Amino acid sequence: MSDPDEVRRLRERVAQLEAELAAGQHSATREPAGRRESWRTVVSAVLITLACLLAPLSATAVWASRQVSVPRG
Description:
Blueprint: H1 4-23, H2 35-68
């Protein structure tokens, strides 16, 4: 079912990745961004909330404009 050479290569790759992880060379061992992520979250939440509030307002403004405007023609 499995090729013995493929199994050997995969085991060597796992050993190599485990060695890199133990040595601290792997990208997963880096410190998380921390504070940089929190301001992005706040800005995203504010912009999404603003968009949700302004979308119905714009639809109401278009409707009101069409109701008030005088037909010309």
